[in-house]
Specification:
With about 250 residues, the chain is an alpha+beta fold. It contains seven helices and ten strands. About 45% of the residues lie in helices and about 15% in strands. The strands form four sheets. The chain has a three-stranded antiparallel sheet with strand order 1-3-2, with helices on one face. A three-stranded antiparallel sheet has the order 4-8-9, with no helix packed on it. One of its GO terms (molecular function) is transferase activity.
Length: about 250
């Protein structure tokens, strides 16, 4: 039986090489993530095994939170333990693995330039918050939005889209998932977010006691950053809702 395939096209060979490198790194260092097989690397395209299913929904959050905690714990154990959040790591071929601080400082400055922040004081506050969050064990960020997970009819979870990969603190990519679920489907009750955070920490701490450190205050700091970083995408990519980083009270969603 032939395997169905999906081909993704890129503007440059460099983007192809980057996405393929990220796929290989995740397959080696984050094995809890189930990735579609990469079958062909072309000059300006990548061809993957095609996975049929639906994007993630709100009810998938507990399972996805546990999956991310497991994946981040595995990556820390196998490769990211010595990595620092304020400087690039290196892939096996010597290419830089983007750091946490630099790309987000640049993105926040662009948000001010494009009118998503009211003034330089707001930018300074967010840059200070970014620096505050750059501590603790290093995980990775893979843009965990609902479209980047495929749930099959059998309930298997596949992770797709390896275009972007940077270092990030534990819990940062979980916050991206929570933020984008809210943008896609509407507000989440506070206990739902608390349960997801608990599932994340429980999965991470199984790899090492030092990894289950993300508390609700820290998660809220990440959510505040994502509120601004995702602002340009409102009304696109299925993001139909506006939101505040603070969750709604129980029962109001």
């Amino acid at each position: 039986m032939s395997v169905r395939q999906f081909t993704k096209h890129y503007e440059t060979p460099g983007r192809v090489a980057s996405a393929a490198r990220h796929h290989a790194w995740l397959a080696e260092h984050a094995p809890p993530l189930r990735l579609p097989a990469l079958t062909v690397v072309g000059p300006t395209s990548l061809t993957y095994e095609r996975i049929d299913g639906r994007p993630a929904r709100t009810e998938d959050l507990p399972a996805l939170a546990g999956l991310l905690g497991d994946a981040h714990g595995a990556a820390w154990t196998t490769d990211l333990r010595p990595a620092a959040l304020n400087r690039p790591h290196r892939f096996r071929d010597g290419i830089a693995f983007g750091d946490y601080i630099g790309p987000r400082q640049a993105a926040l400055r662009r948000r001010l330039e494009h009118g998503y922040l009211p003034d330089r004081a707001a930018l300074h506050a967010l840059l200070t918050l970014l620096e505050k969050t750059a501590e603790g064990p290093t995980a990775f960020y893979k843009d965990s939005n609902p479209r980047n997970f495929i749930i099959t009819e059998a309930g298997e979870i596949y992770t797709v889209d390896t275009d972007d990969l940077t270092l990030a603190p534990m819990g940062y990519d979980l916050a991206k998932l929570i933020a984008t679920l809210v943008l896609t489907y509407g507000p989440l009750p506070a206990p739902t977010i608390d349960s997801a955070l608990r599932a994340y920490n429980e999965a991470a701490v199984r790899h090492d006691p030092r990894l289950g450190i993300t508390d609700r205050e820290r998660l809220d700091d990440f959510l505040a950053l994502h509120a601004v970083l995702t602002a340009p995408y409102a009304g696109r990519n299925g993001y139909r809702y506006r939101w505040s980083p603070r969750p709604c009270p129980q029962g109001s969603a």
